[in-house]
Amino acid sequence: MSVRSFVHASMRGATAILSRIKNLIIPPFCAYCRDFMNSDEVLCERCLARIRPIVSMPLRITKKKELFIYAISDYEYPLRSLIQQKQYGNRCASRQLGRLLWEHTPLEQVQFDIIVPIPLHWTRYAWRGFNQSEEMANVLSKYSKKPVVHLLERSKKTLWQAGLSRENRAVNLRQVFNLAKDAYQYERMRILFVDDVLTTGATLYAACKALRPLRPAICSAVVVCRVINK
Ligand SMILES: [Zn+2]
Q1: Are the CB atoms for 110 and 218 separated by under 8 Å?
Q2: Is 218 exposed, middle or buried (CB count within 10 Å of its CB: 0-12, 13-18, 19+)?
Q3: Beta strands in 39-135 (DSSP E)
Q4: What is the model's pLDDT at position 40?
Q5: Domain containing residue 77: CATH number
């Protein structure tokens, strides 16, 4: 056994032990029905089967262009439990969400060259330790074999979107994204944005506007949930 494979084997062993210790401390119960589960997932198979799919919708960007948005479902239980887990910094939930994005939307038929996660502001990143859109994008990259490219950077801190009116949200998100330094090598590509929750569409609208200098061929987006404002 080479040193390298020995190190790999030891790391795999350590990961398995850590996973068992974690299961002893936090037993794997389904986040919604609280049933005991035999896996590292957050929602059990029975709850996943309850997710009600929705029809994808277009978001108008300019007179001629629209962004097609694919979502797993509306913001309702049991999927809502998974989103809430994720907000508490559960990386495992983000990965399960990534898999659901692939399995519960028509993404397999969507044409795209690169996957662009919507960035999180660094203060929130520091607080949570990871960006859930990035985690989901990495999972989608494995399924689609397309690369994750960080084309966007947040230029200033966005106020919390919740509680703001539609107009204020639009103002809040104006110039919120900058293009990354090496973005110009990705001109005229087919883009797939990844974000968690769609409310007014203002974030995705701002992301599309920021990418305009790259003249993308097509932009599509995939989100976990669509929140209907009533
Ligand atoms: Zn369950």
Answers
A1: no
A2: middle
A3: 57-60, 66-74, 114-117
A4: 76
A5: 3.40.50
The answer to whether residue 36 is domain-embedded is no
pLDDT in tens, 4-26: 777 677 767 776 666 666 555 55
Both tokens of 171, joined, read 């103002």
pLDDT in tens, 38-66: 777 888 999 999 999 888 888 888 888 88
Tell me how many domains the chain contains.
1
Q: Where are the alpha helices (DSSP H) in 65-129?
A: 79-87, 91-103, 122-128
Distance 29 CA to ligand 1 centre (A): 8
Q: Let me know if residue 9 belongs to a domain.
A: no
Q: Are 169 and 193 in contact (CB under 8 A)?
A: no
Q: Rounded to the nearest whole angstrom, what is the distance from the C-alpha of residue 26 to the centroid of ligand 1?
A: 16
Distance 25 CA to ligand 1 centre (A): 19
Structure pTM?
Answer: 0.80
pLDDT for 230: 47
Per the domain annotation, does 203 fall within a domain?
yes
Query: Rounded to an integer, what distance in angstroms lies between the CA atom of residue 96 and that of residue 100?
Result: 6
| pLDDT 10s digits, 170-199 | 655 666 888 998 999 999 999 999 998 888
Note whether residue 40 is domain-resident. no
Q: Which domain holds residue 72?
A: 48-226
Report the separation in Å between the CA atom of 196 and the middle of ligand 1, taken as the mean of its atom positions. Answer: 21
Which tokens belong to 22?
């974690």
The alpha carbon of 67 and the centre of ligand 1 are apart by a number of angstroms equal to 33
Higher pLDDT, 113 or 6: 113
